[in-house]
Please model this.
Amino acid sequence: MQLISGTAVAEKVLEECRRDIAELAAAGKKPGLAVVLVGEDPASRAYVRSKDKKCRDLGLHSIKLELPASTTQEELLAHVQTLNNDPAIHGILVQSPPPTHIDEAAIVRAIDPAKDVDGFHPMNVAKLALEDSSGFVPCTPLGCQRLLMDAGIETKGANVVVLGRSMIVGKPMALLLMAKGPGGDATVTVAHSRTRDLASITKQADIIIAAIGRPEFLKAEHVREGAVVIDVGINRVEAPDTPKGYKLVGDVAFDEVAPLCKAITPVPGGVGPMTIAMLIANTIKACKQIG
Ligand SMILES: NC(=O)C1=CN([C@@H]2O[C@H](COP(=O)(O)OP(=O)(O)OC[C@H]3O[C@@H](n4cnc5c(N)ncnc54)[C@H](OP(=O)(O)O)[C@@H]3O)[C@@H](O)[C@H]2O)C=CC1
Ligand SMILES: Nc1nc(=O)c2c([nH]1)NC[C@@H]1CN(c3ccc(C(=O)N[C@@H](CCC(=O)O)C(=O)O)cc3)C=[N+]21
Model:
């Protein structure tokens, strides 16, 4: 069993980013990222903080807008407009999900597609579907693809089952894997909460990407021997014996699934760090494209 370290691959990606950042600096440019968080969700705050810290470590310009849960749609749209017009900002991310009184689709559409480093704007979703590489691909699926490629796992002709069909992970993951070329060319099946007899489908998979948000859902009975499993899930579960009182687990029951696998990612230290690395890579791409 090969344990695929997202931490290690993310470090490689960030090393490439450092080179790009130095080149841009020589040309008098500095990529800038703005992360907007509405509300006080502790997990979201932790993610936003670690992203901000990583950006600063790398010498990126980073701003973090932490807005109260009472922020109105109009106020949030005004913040997005300001960031769209700010020449020091090349990437804008509005943390998902926002409070329920916010129309997330309208916010996403308001972000300048050239600064949409999350790849959520319809223009970028379309570019992904069209295999137009000028667009932005959502960071988490991009990170999963890079993990597979870096671990030497061939996707061409592979049966891949993507568990989950969200716009942030499952759907773009499926599009990336079915695209032509390296890291793609897979035969993709997408399963979700309405899928019948899930185990019979996942058992056929050479590669399983689990992104459903159910702690330790994927069990040994779902996985064929020799499969590769990428665990996207980040779930906080109670752990009274730990200092924080909780721990992170994935969507995969790691202890029973790992022994069956050719390769598997851990949680934490798997897909999570890759998401942040890809966010920085996308911000650099935005900076280069905007000029
Ligand atoms: N590592 C990282 O960087 C990131 C991790 N995540 C994590 O990934 C997980 C998924 O996130 P996200 O895509 O945003 O979640 P969503 O809740 O938006 O989507 C979950 C998907 O899983 C499907 N699903 C739910 N329950 C089942 C089930 N029992 N069987 C089969 N399918 C099921 C849902 O089906 P239906 O469509 O029918 O409702 C839906 O398509 C979460 O744990 C999240 O924390 C997310 C983003 C980044
Ligand atoms: N617009 C938007 N874009 C996102 O990319 C986005 C989002 N909204 N909403 C929430 C999810 C979740 N997400 C994570 C990214 C990194 C880790 C991560 O680095 N996790 C570490 C552990 C961190 C810890 O210890 O708490 C790890 O897995 O090793 C986790 C979760 C991005 N998301």
